[in-house]
Amino acid sequence: MNERQKFGGIAALILAVTLVIGLAMFATLLSDYATGDQEPGESVTFIADHYATMYVWNLIVMVVFGVLLVPVGLALHDRLREGSGALSQTATAFALIWAGLLIGAGMVTLVDLGTIADLADTDPGRAESVWISLDSVERGMGGTIEIVGGLWVLLISWAALRSGVFPKALNYLGIVISASAFATIVPACELVGAVFGLGLIVWLVWLGVIMYRSGPSEPTEIGVESAAGSRNRHRLEASVD
To answer: Is-above-0.90 flag for pTM?
Structure first.
C-alpha cells in the first residue's frame, strides 16, 4: 500500500473527527456564545468565563484541522495527477491556501483569546475592541465564509470525476457540499456553513476509508482513457516539434 495514500486516508478520517468534536462543542458547551447576536461585552464576558473551552475549540477546529489538511491535499494530488494533472495541481494549491488561512487565523485567535481574558476585568473597553477585531479576522479567514474550502472540495470532486478514481456518488456529494460553501458569501446564508461542515464530515470519512484501503490509485476505464489521451496528445505535439 502506498504509504502517502494510507497516511492521507488516516489524516482525512482525523479531519472528520475534528469537525465532529468542533460541531459538538459548538452546539453544547459554546451554545450561548454561538446562538443569537451577542454584544461585544457579552462575548468578552463569555470568553473570560470559558477561556479554556474556547482555547481548545479553536485549537482543534482551526490549527489541528489546518495542519492535517496538508497531508490530505498532497495525497489527493498524488492520486489524481495522472488523469487530471492541471485540476489536481489547482486543487492542491487551494488546499494549502486553506490550511494556511486556518492555521494563521487559529494562531491569532489563540493569542487574542488570552488578551481578551486578561483585559476583561481590568479594561473591558479594550477587551471589547480586541474582540471586535478578532471576530472580523476569524470570519474573514474561514470562520464563516467558506469559499476557499468549497473551491478545494469542488476541484477535487471535478478532478476525480474526470480521472474516474473515486466513486461518482462521492464526487457528486463533494460538488453539492461545495455549493453550500459558496452560499456562505451571502450574509443571510451564513448558517449554511453548518451544512457544509456536516457534509464535509461525510465526504472526508468516505474519502479517508477509500484512500486507506485502496493504496495506489486504480483509475476506471474513463480515467485510463483520459490519461492515455493526454499522453497521446503530448507525443503528437513532440513529433510535430
So the answer is: no
